[in-house]
Design brief:
The chain is α+β, with helices and mostly antiparallel strands. Helix content is 41%, strand content 25%. Helix 4 packs antiparallel against helix 5.
Length: 399
């Protein structure tokens, strides 16, 4: 079903995040829209148990299910490692809730993970003096990313926390109802690529919250400072053409097939799973051949032998939703210099940050063939954004 997102598509747009942050051109979100928040409950424990890929996958699944229902990937959201935040118009609320509930069931049955679901009206955050506005970052011809201004998303999370602490917890929760009808379709989700070794020494996931004390720098100034230490999007890209390789084990293919067929019951489900797995194995074999021998095969409008370059072009590596979030490749010397500067600024109350280091990146892919939308979510392996967020929350709790 197509969704009317003309308001979002008419928001200010640029292909340069620095330019968007500096110009601060944006459109206030209509008060009747709804903020949906999802996150994996107990994600830190799951990551400690080695399930960081499952956490990342479950965090992405609501987006793929909604993209298939809306017939587009071009709606406002931000991915945070173990969950996603979406802002959508109210006329789709009942369908969105049903899809999210079905995705929650998938997370439980296939991954043994609990996906928390919540919804807060934008009017509720405005009533508390918050602001929320959106601009669009054109990452590529296949992917435009929402940039969120204001403290509206922070206030939405605070409402959820306060409600839970006061013994509520249900006011904003999305819960399954009797006779729930499954709607979620995860076709287009892919996890066929191996973890990508850092093109430099380290792949880092960084969350940076601008300060409010005198002397604090604006977010665009912080981004410029970060680029001084680690470089721009291209020079610090966590992917490289040479370092991307398709997984040779069958487990990701079985997972894809299972996600695409899990709502089918009985013998039909088994047959669909077998056929899907066989089809995916054939696709992967052909893709590996095209990549290895640079054969210009075309699939779903894309030239397969150029897929590594396409992955880099449509990658989700830098974003802003009140926090500056990035995944970057950096050498040890530059990272140590960056952390020294961040510690100094944090000690003066000018910012707070959370960081996670790895030697590789995790790439989760979503390709929407109907709309030609494509996005590759990039995170640092072994916990990435989720562990950086835990560190940041602990610092904010102490301040």
């Amino acid at each position: 079903m197509k969704i009317d997102l003309d308001w979002y598509h008419n928001c200010p747009e640029s292909n340069d995040l620095s330019q968007l942050l500096q110009a601060r051109t944006s459109a206030p979100v209509p008060a009747d829209w709804i903020i949906y928040l999802t996150d994996v409950s107990g994600s830190t424990k799951a990551i400690d148990q080695g399930k960081y890929k499952d956490v990342n996958t479950v965090g992405c699944l609501p987006l793929m299910a909604l993209a298939n229902y809306f017939e587009t990937l071009d709606f406002p959201f931000v991915f945070g490692g173990d969950g996603v935040t979406l802002v959508l118009p109210p006329e789709m609320d009942s369908e969105v809730r049903r899809i999210l509930i079905d995705t929650q069931s998938t997370a439980s049955q296939i991954f043994d993970l609990s996906l928390r679901l919540s919804a807060v009206r934008v009017a509720d955050v405005y009533a508390r003096g918050a602001q929320l506005a959106i601009a669009r970052l054109k990452v590529s011809d296949r992917y435009s990313q929402a940039v969120f201004y204001g403290d509206g998303l922070d206030i939405a999370e605070k409402l959820l926390k306060d409600d839970h602490d006061q013994g509520g917890g249900a006011s904003f929760r999305i819960v399954a109802k009797p006779n729930h009808q499954a709607l979620a379709n995860f076709e287009g989700f892919s996890c066929r690529w191996k973890d990508v070794p850092s093109p430099k020494e380290i792949t880092v996931a960084l969350l940076l919250k601008p300060g409010t004390t005198p002397g604090s720098k604006s977010v665009e100034e912080l981004l410029r400072r970060l680029q001084f230490f680690i470089g721009d999007v291209q020079s610090s890209h966590p992917l490289s053409v040479a370092n991307q390789s398709i997984r040779t084990d069958s487990s990701p293919l079985r997972l894809e097939a299972k996600l695409e067929s899990w709502t089918t019951m009985g013998l039909a489900a088994w047959l669909k799973l077998v056929l899907k797995t066989m089809a995916l194995r054939l696709k992967v074999t052909v893709a590996r051949f095209a990549l290895a021998f640079n054969v210009p095969l075309v699939y779903q409008g894309m030239q397969v032998n150029l897929k590594r370059q396409e992955n880099m072009m449509h990658a989700d590596t830098r974003k802003f939703d009140g926090l500056l979030k990035l995944v970057a490749a950096v050498n040890r010397k530059n990272l140590d210099s960056l952390k020294k500067w961040l510690d100094e600024e944090e000690s003066k109350g000018r910012l707070n940050y959370g960081i996670h280091e790895s030697d590789r990146a995790l790439m989760t892919c979503m390709v929407h063939s109907v709309s030609s939308g494509e996005v590759h979510f990039i995170d640092a392996a072994d916990g990435g954004y989720a562990l950086a967020a835990r560190q940041l929350k602990l610092k904010l709790a102490r301040s």
